[in-house]
Amino acid sequence: MSVESANLSTSKPLKGRVEAFLRDFEWTWTTAVLFSFGILLALVIGVCVIPSFWIYYANTNLLWNQPRHFHLIFVTWDATAVWMGLIRDAIAMGVSTGPIITILVGASVLQNKRRKLRGQTDSRPAGGYR
Q: 101 in a domain, yes or no?
């Protein structure tokens, strides 16, 4: 790393560098395709692999699918296995929907920030014909 690039990287604060990148960035076909493949890979891992591993881990190591018997006065009750299975599935659903929501919200935030940095107003004014 040269002295000039070191001075350039430390001369502006991080916020200024990020804003300059967002303002000046333009998509090309190559960057759009590579970015889309990266997002697709992240979604497959976040939506399919991690929840599947969580269910496997909860069943094998934590034994959340094993019945646990409770004896009330005249009734044997094994509802703990049912509740643990429901909690396991709720965690898996939360983990699988998290990446999708994160990408949608992040894209919206970045798009609005970029529009502000470029000095644009609303992209679609209300009413009237174009």
A: yes
